[in-house]
Specification:
This protein has about 800 residues and is α+β, with helices and mostly antiparallel strands. The chain contains 25 helices and ten strands. Helix 10 packs antiparallel against helix 11 and helix 14 packs antiparallel against helix 15.
Length: about 800
């Protein structure tokens, strides 16, 4: 109806307009005079004049207005104003220019260094060059991506400005003299902004193109130098097994020409510059190491401080800590320097040498108060022999003198190792500093030390100088790493024990607990990490790390196909590794809260429940992280789960049922760890709620393992769900006393209340009823504060009532 009304109104207006324009008009010139006479007069004949309809009223006006021109000018202003903002976001161009210039200088140093005689650098130099080129290659890839992104931004701005040429309104303004005069001020401002934007675009485009050229030139240089370094490494490897120099006993061995001293100094200077450049470009890795050290220091310091405030530092005496102190400066250095290769796996050999030297100096201060005098002297002698390696390189000795120096050093090292083996009973044994696995690791390190030094002596005598240097370096660092990582492992174990004990003291748990199993678990996990660190340094010293890494990359990185499912061994290994770490963390997280699984921590039900949820979260996050890190896509994982669903439907129903039931128990919480429950015919205290099963600790001390599905399928009687109170019922058959007033219920209530385990808020109930003319039945009801103390409280109350009745000469039958 509303639409019909609007239609009718519009039609009416239109008709009125047409009638006004098409009205009949009678001009005076055509009027005829009226005829006089009798009869009917003839009607007057009129001539109709039709006016033409003005159709322009309903035509669209295509001519642009002043507002349209202003809007077009405003759009151009906004676009040109956006140009400085967009180009101002290219903030890293100056930094990239500085870095590219530094990289160009580093490449020039490498070119000059590699252009020198092959005798001025050894295998460690080439390893450092290779690592530095890898770092430069990585930087160049990052710069290329950033420059490409910046170039795309400028191209986008150029396209937007080029689109202004298609704006017909702006073109009409510039062509029409009147419009150009009316927009004179705006056009003048527009010209200034146009010049500014054009200048910025040209400047930044030229700058980016220049940086791209430098980056491209550096990339080419990196590839050329990388090829040359790889060629030199292969040549050194092949040359190492060949005779490089005369035999040491030959007369020509001592007449070898000395290298030019100035050339050697130049090589040392260039090497130092390259190392400084590497360190300056990998500062983030050092920051992570520093952050790790600070976290470890404050972790140990805060635990010791909490024990000092509670006057409980003496509780640590049973652990016999060797490496931890209230101010753990030395322990922090050992912890951080031992982990340094893990933060920078491809670090130059000189970096590993520096960290190992600093680590050995710190260990010397630690061993000064721990080792016997003769063993400490042996360690100091080993440290002096260790210093010979860098000193021979720094001094730039002639090759024949360097060979004799290495021969003396290797011979002394073999002698030192043999003496250590002969007198090992003085420092290895049940009552010595090195026992068990610690002694085995140290003895293995000493064995490698003797073996590789013997190979170094043989290679030096036979003229295999490079091979002799490799074996000598490997021998020293193998033993140094073995000792330092052994200390590192025991340091981590002591740190965990400190955390557990300090948490137990703060929570008022019993001080003594079984820590042997905990120490063994932490020791085993930390030993795996120590072995990985040892292998990294060991293979790096033997120049095998890159070769082994390439082989492992080919093996674990190759895509394999099983049907429609593709995977890599590396992805599977990473998946399994992350799952193992997540499982290790969820088992160890309780140690940080002093929970070792004993009865004392079981009484803290809230904490145990929170830890259980935290463990489940860690497992879930570990699984999700493992899926993401291994490269397994969700759709492929869905396919695998779909295939497994057949097996689940056939044979794994109970496992899935137990898993889901475990999740329900964790979040629904019908029972908690520490509750006393009855499940079927089993009664005991809940000791653990796991993913698959739960454990009950019975009164007899037996641990009953019940699948979670069975827990939910049975009726659960939880005696301690909301509180720990328990109602106790006692009955006594009494002989009727001669005087009935001697048996007073109020007195019996007072006797019951006198027990400290009886709940005061609820009065005991005493009922006396007749059994016969000679017997009475006494019933007593009271509430015990703690369900776990019901047997003790019952016995105490029963004894107190017996004494009361005996004092009243009432016979209990």
């Amino acid at each position: 109806m509303r639409s019909f009304g609007w239609t009718f109104l519009l039609s009416t207006c239109l008709a009125g307009s047409l009638q006004a324009q098409d009205s009949l008009r009678v001009p005076d010139s055509v009027r005829r005079p009226e005829k006089q006479g009798k009869g009917r007069q003839a009607p007057e004949r009129r001539k109709y004049e039709h006016r033409k309809f003005d159709s322009t009223l309903f035509m669209e006006n295509a001519a642009a207005t002043q507002g349209d021109y202003l809007e077009s000018v405003e759009k151009v202003f906004l676009l040109l104003d956006q140009v400085p903002v967009t180009l101002g976001s290219l903030t890293q161009l100056d930094d990239m220019q500085t870095q590219l210039v530094h990289e160009d200088s580093a490449l020039s140093l490498l070119k000059n260094r590699l252009s020198q005689s092959e005798k001025t650098f050894n295998i460690r130099n080439l390893q450092m060059f290779n690592v530095l080129l890898d770092e430069l290659r990585k930087n160049e890839m990052d710069y290329s991506k950033k420059l490409e992104a910046y170039g795309n931004k400028i191209d986008t701005v150029k396209k937007q400005i080029a689109g202004l040429r298609k704006d017909t309104l702006m073109l009409h303004i510039f062509r029409d003299t009147a419009l150009k005069a009316s927009f004179g001020s705006q056009l003048e401002q527009l010209r200034d902004k146009w010049r500014q934007a054009d200048s910025l675009i040209k400047t930044n485009s030229t700058f980016i193109n220049d940086l791209k050229a430098i980056s491209s030139e550096n990339t080419i240089g990196i590839e050329e130098l990388g090829t040359k370094v790889d060629k030199e490494l292969k040549a050194v490897g092949n040359r190492a097994f060949g005779k490089e120099r005369p035999y040491l006993w030959e007369s020509g061995a001592g007449a070898a020409p000395n290298p030019v001293n100035s050339g050697f100094k130049m090589s040392i200077d260039s090497e130092q510059k390259l190392v400084r450049y590497y360190f300056s470009n990998t500062q983030n890795k050092r920051l992570w190491i520093l952050l790790t050290g600070l976290v470890f220091f404050y972790w140990i310091f805060l635990n010791y401080r909490s024990l000092r405030r509670l006057n409980a530092v003496g509780v640590l005496d049973e652990f016999h800590f060797s490496f931890l102190r209230p101010w753990p400066f030395a322990a922090t250095f050992v912890f951080v320097l031992s982990l340094a290769p893990l933060f920078d796996i491809h670090a130059p050999a000189i970096y590993i040498e520096s960290t190992q030297f600093l680590l050995m100096v710190v260990l010397t201060f630690i061993f000064y108060r721990l080792l016997p005098t003769d063993l400490f002297r042996g360690w100091c002698l080993f440290l002096l022999l260790f210093l010979v390696l860098p000193l021979t390189r720094i001094l730039g000795l002639p090759i024949h003198l360097e060979r004799w120096t290495n021969l003396i050093q290797d011979s002394l090292s073999v002698t030192l190792g043999v003496i250590a083996f002969i007198f090992r009973k003085r420092w290895v044994g049940p009552e010595k500093k090195f026992t068990g696995a610690r002694a085995r690791f140290i003895l293995a390190g000493v064995g490698l030390y003797v073996f590789f030094n013997f190979l170094a002596i043989a290679g030096n005598l036979a003229g295999r100088v490079t091979l002799s240097q490799v074996f000598g370096d490997t021998a020293v660092y193998a033993l140094a790493q073995t000792v330092s990582l052994t200390v590192f492992v025991h340091l981590v174990v002591e740190s965990f024990l400190l955390q557990i004990q300090s948490s137990r003291v703060r929570k008022r748990y019993p001080i003594h607990f079984e820590f042997a199993g905990i120490a063994h678990s932490v020791y085993r996990g930390t030993t795996i990490l120590a072995v990985i660190l040892w292998l990294i340094v060991f293979t790096t010293n033997l120049n095998l790390f890159d070769a082994i890494g390439d082989q492992l990359s080919d093996i674990f990185g190759t895509v394999r196909q099983v049907g429609s499912f593709s995977f890599t061994l590396g992805g599977l290994a990473l998946f399994a590794g992350i799952i193992w770490v997540a499982n290790f963390l969820q088992r160890s997280i309780t140690y940080f809260f002093g929970d070792t699984g004993d009865d004392a921590a079981m009484d803290d039900k809230g904490q145990r429940s929170r830890l259980l949820i935290m463990r489940l979260i860690l497992l879930t996050l570990g699984f999700l992280l493992a899926v993401a890190a291994s490269g397994l896509s969700i759709d492929r994982l869905t396919v695998i789960l779909g295939a497994l669903s057949v097996g689940i439907g056939l044979g794994l129903q109970s496992i899935v049922n137990n898993f889901i039931s475990g999740v329900i128990l964790i979040f629904d919480r019908p029972l908690r760890i520490g509750d006393t429950v009855e499940i079927g015919d089993k009664r005991g205290k809940v000791r653990e709620i796991g993913i698959r099963s739960s454990r009950l600790l019975t009164e007899e001390g037996a641990e009953v393992i019940i699948p979670n599905g069975d827990v939910l399928s049975h009726n659960i009687v939880n005696w301690t769900l909301s509180n720990n109170y328990a109602r106790v019922n006692l009955q006594f058959t009494l002989g009727r006393p001669a005087n009935s007033k001697d048996l007073r219920p109020d007195d019996i209530r007072d006797v019951i209340k006198a027990n400290e385990n009886v709940l005061d808020r609820r009065d005991p109930e005493v009922l006396i009823s007749n059994i016969s003319s000679k017997q009475l039945l006494l019933k007593v009801f009271f509430w015990c504060k703690d369900f776990n103390k019901v047997p003790i409280t019952t016995g105490e109350v029963q004894s107190a009532i017996y004494q009361y009745l005996e004092s009243k000469d009432i016979v209990v039958e």
